[in-house]
Design brief:
The complex is a heterodimer of chains A (323) and B (518).
Chain A (H helix, E strand, L loop, with lengths): L1 H23 L5 E5 L6 H17 L3 E5 L6 H8 L7 E6 H10 L11 E17 L7 H10 L5 E4 L5 H13 L4 E4 L3 H9 L5 E5 H9 L3 E6 L25 E9 L4 H16 L1 H9 L10 H22 L5
Helix pairs in contact in A: 2-9, 4-11
Chain B lengths: L1 H15 L2 E5 L2 E6 L1 H18 L5 H12 L4 H26 L8 H12 L3 H35 L3 H18 L4 H15 L2 E2 L6 E2 L13 H19 L1 H9 L8 H22 L5 H16 L12 H16 L1 H7 L5 H12 L7 H5 L1 H33 L3 H20 L2 H19 L4 H24 L13 H33 L1
Antiparallel strand pairs in B: 1-2, 3-4
Helix pairs in contact in B: 1-17, 2-4, 2-17, 3-4, 3-15, 4-5, 4-6, 4-13, 4-15, 4-17, 5-6, 5-13, 6-11, 6-13, 6-14, 6-17, 7-8, 7-12, 7-20, 7-21, 8-20, 9-18, 9-19, 9-20, 11-12, 11-13, 12-13, 18-19
The chains are: A alpha/beta (323), B mainly alpha (518).
């Protein structure tokens, strides 16, 4: 009898605890892992977001840089970490969609080990060319590439970056051949293009925009289906004859897969609230981001799985790999 | 010329501007806010420069969210202050305890630390501060007057030119050592090999990582430098019980003597010129400045036999060069919007968040910002020298702390510094391994400086070599083709330098043979 009572009390206690677990979250500081070195756009947006979340959650949100292996180390840390809602990671197109096919022994599965909370930033890529290149639009460029196969060089921030893969996609869709020249980051590639040593590159809008505006390089098209509000006069690749060409660089927040639903929902709501606040909205816009249309965790997860499929295919066909 | 003065006037007005500031609900009128931010930046920079391992990149990244609430000009003035302040502070630990916190202070260790061991830490620190100040002033003027044309020069540097420049740098690395030539070359090659660890840029394939994911991005510079210099020095010091007590008890004079002044003038001038020139090259230019300046001095100085044993020229020249390079590395950022190193990339981030697109239009659209920042650098350099000269007395006192208390604290700070870079305990172990390696090298009479230079230049050299070959579709003549006169010039200079280095030792060999025969 006593045992029964005790059991009942325990059961009551545990249901009580379960019921309270959610409204009580968070009761201690959160960590937000940025899997890249401090100072990059993903790190900066993590810090901007952390400052906002700190206010609304009433708990410190600590940004922790865990760079290495193309971001895989940091993401793996959270994928294998406690699913308590206190460990967050800035996940991105590289770690969720490209690396799984680029790195053969990826320690985590982007869909099975992670739960995707909110898409934070979506930045278009732009096709930019050297000012001296005779091509004034995408059609000219395709013609030029066909006329001089293997003579045009396209740069990118690194092997397996969105810039590289956009170039490979371009080659595939137009049936042209151009040589890929990888750099360490897009800034030196842009410099070499201004110096006339490479002909074109697909660069993140935010990093190319200053050079486009100061006419050091010429933009031919954006890689998104919709025109960018930063360069509304610039056509898209889709309009220029490459039907369905749609590539963006994106990043957001993910947590371990077993994180409770209620926590994910609350977190998503808080992040969306932060993103809709005018100051953060402005700052993310300054990074070249248009407010993403994808908002709920379900939409984000569906988006990740679609992107994963696209890039797995693209990486395989481009022959890029990290061993 | 008049244009320049007009622009500088705009800048100084901006720097010293009085503005109302609201803080904690109180509004104060007429606060010289920008100059206060400059001071804060310089102070912070000096502090993190002194702390081994904690570099300006991490500090600026952490402070970025704070700067978003400041005006763009105040934010940039402060961030720039942290950057060049760290260059000042970095030389302090290099001289006092043989720890190069920044890649540019590696060569300062060579003679600076030897001066400290001879009880001349004061003059060494003062020389570093004075040299840095002079170089900072001159190169700020260079930035103000010639930024746009110099940026065009920077654009002339492609993969082929960088590769040839690195070759010259590597040949010069051999001169860094004062012992055996063969050992120096062996250390350069070992450094090159260590630099290959990590992901290959072209194919993305992992090399020499042995399945350790922490090695995927290569070995960090700070890890190697702290191990090879800092830890190795501690082991070596602990080994000899008596002599280190002598070293710590003799403090000596604080200021350079008349003789010191005479000897430091020309090295400072040459260091400033070389640093300003190399600083404008994005991608390793500023890094080569301090190495190059040291090598140059060792070759031209009439005291070259003293190098590595506490020659004041060996502190004055590289310190001037690295500070000059730090200032002129703003040129590609301000005129082209291209960051020349990680700190500059952060500054771009800070500008973009503030809604400013970095690039040539900044100069015309926001002259207050552009010229204000340049003038703040000059004011900042003045602040730093005023700040640093009195601090020398305090730093020197640090050396009188008994070594048994000093070395555990140094170890602790190094471990914190290395850990803070990517929050990996692995890096601390790696640092210890390099400490042991450094100790073995010292015992074998091999010096670590050439290894470090090989380690830094190796990956850059390989990257540019392979990029140049990709662009030329595999034609090796691209490096000496008449269409690339800059590249050809560097390679010719490398060959000439090799001959100069090899000639005396060849002669000596011949003499030895001759002696044995008779």
């Amino acid at each position: 009898m006593l045992r029964l009572l005790l059991l009942a009390a325990l059961a009551a206690g545990s249901t009580l605890a379960a019921a309270q677990a959610v409204p009580q979250w968070p009761t201690r500081p959160l960590r937000l892992v940025a899997p890249y070195a401090a100072g990059g756009p993903i790190d900066i947006s993590a810090r901007l977001l952390a400052a906002k979340l700190q206010e609304s959650l009433g708990q410190p949100v600590v940004v922790e840089n865990r760079p290495g292996a193309g971001g895989n180390i940091g993401v793996d840390l959270i994928a294998k970490g406690p699913a308590d809602g206190y460990s967050l990671v800035m996940s991105a197109i590289a770690t969720l969609a490209i690396n799984p096919s680029l790195y053969p022994g990826l320690p985590y599965d982007p869909l099975k080990d992670l739960r995707h909370v909110t898409l934070l930033v979506q930045v278009p890529n732009v096709l930019v060319v050297n000012n001296d290149l005779p091509a004034k639009n995408v059609k000219d460029l395709i013609a030029l590439a066909k006329q001089r196969p293997g003579k045009l060089d396209f740069g990118s921030g690194s092997s397996g970056s969105t810039g590289h893969l956009a170039g490979e996609m371009f080659k595939m869709m137009t049936g042209t051949y151009m040589v890929h020249i990888p750099y360490k980051g897009s800034a030196p590639a842009l410099a070499d293009m201004m110096g006339g040593r490479i002909h074109l590159m697909f660069d993140n809008l935010a990093s190319a925009l200053p050079s486009i505006r100061s006419e050091k390089v010429r933009a031919l098209a954006t890689t998104t289906l919709k025109r960018s509000s930063f360069l509304p006069e610039l056509p898209t690749l889709d309009e220029s004859g490459l039907k369905g060409f749609d590539m963006t660089t994106w990043w957001g927040v993910s947590v371990a897969v077993k994180t409770p639903d209620a926590v994910v929902e609350r977190l998503s709501a808080e992040i969306l609230k932060a993103m809709d606040a005018p100051d953060l909205k402005d700052r993310l816009r300054n990074m070249g981001s248009e407010s993403p249309a994808i908002r709920t965790p379900e939409q984000f997860t569906a988006f990740v799985s679609a992107e994963l499929k696209t890039y797995t295919e693209l990486v395989k066909r481009s022959g890029a790999k990290a061993d | 010329m008049e244009g320049i003065f007009g622009n500088l006037a705009i800048g100084f007005v901006e720097v010293f501007k009085l503005q109302p500031v609201t803080m904690w609900g109180m509004t104060l009128q007429h606060v010289p806010f920008n100059i206060i931010m400059c001071l804060i930046g310089c102070l912070l920079g000096t502090l993190i420069g002194v702390l081994p391992g904690i570099g300006p990149v991490a500090t600026i990244a952490m402070l970025l969210p704070v700067t978003f609430n400041l005006s763009p000009i105040a934010a940039l003035i402060m961030l720039a202050g942290i950057y060049y302040g760290a260059q000042y502070g970095g030389s302090t630990t290099a001289i006092l305890v043989n720890i190069p916190g920044e890649s540019s202070s590696v060569v300062t260790c060579l003679d600076g630390y030897q001066m400290a061991r001879q009880g001349r830490a004061g003059p060494a620190l003062a020389t570093a501060a004075i040299g840095s100040f002079f170089a900072g002033c001159v190169s700020t003027l260079v930035v103000a007057m010639f930024a746009p044309p110099l940026a065009e020069v920077a654009l002339k540097f492609g993969p082929a030119e960088y590769f040839s420049l690195m070759v010259l740098g590597l040949v010069a690395a051999v001169v860094l050592a004062h012992g055996s030539l063969i050992k120096a070359i062996a250390m350069v090659i070992l450094g090159l090999l260590l630099g290959l660890v990590g992901t290959d840029v072209n194919s993305g394939v992992l090399r020499f990582a042995f399945g350790i994911s922490e090695l995927a991005d290569g070995i960090g510079f700070v890890t190697v430098a702290m191990g090879m210099f800092g830890i190795c020095e501690i082991i070596a010091n602990l080994e000899q019980k008596e002599s280190r007590e002598i070293f710590t008890s003799s403090v000596g004079k604080l200021m350079p003597s008349k003789e010191d002044w005479k000897r430091m003038i020309m090295p400072i001038l040459r260091g400033t010129a070389l640093g300003s020139a190399l600083g404008i090259l994005p991608g390793g230019g500023a890094l080569l400045a301090s190495f190059g300046a040291y090598t140059l001095e060792k070759k031209v100085s009439k005291y070259s036999h003293e190098f590595g044993k506490g020659a004041i020229e060996g502190v004055a020249a590289p310190e001037s060069a690295n500070n000059a390079g730090a200032q002129t590395s703003f040129i590609p950022l301000l005129t082209l919007g291209i960051p020349s190193n990680a700190v500059m990339a952060l500054m771009i981030g800070a500008m973009m968040i503030q809604g400013i697109a970095p690039g040539p239009q900044v100069m015309t659209e926001r002259p207050q910002l552009f010229w204000g920042m340049i003038c703040s650098m000059w004011v900042g350099n003045l602040m730093l020298v005023i700040l640093n000269l009195p601090l020398i007395g305090m730093w020197i006192k640090l050396l009188t702390v008994p070594y048994r208390y000093l070395y555990p604290s140094i170890l602790l700070f190094m471990a914190i510094g290395v850990f803070s870079i990517s929050n990996q305990p692995f890096d601390c172990f790696l640092m210890a391994v390099f400490g042991l390696l450094g100790y073995v090298c010292v015992k074998l009479g091999c010096e670590p400086a050439p290894l470090i230079l090989g380690f830094i230049l190796g990956p850059l050299m390989e990257e540019n070599l392979r990029r140049a070959m990709l662009l030329s579709r595999g034609d090796p003549w691209v490096f000496i083709s008449p269409s690339k006169p800059i590249s050809m010039g560097f390679l010719i200079a490398s060959v000439a330098l090799l001959v100069i280095i090899a000639a005396p030792s060849l002669r000596k060999k011949r003499e030895e043979v001759f002696v044995e025969e008779t």
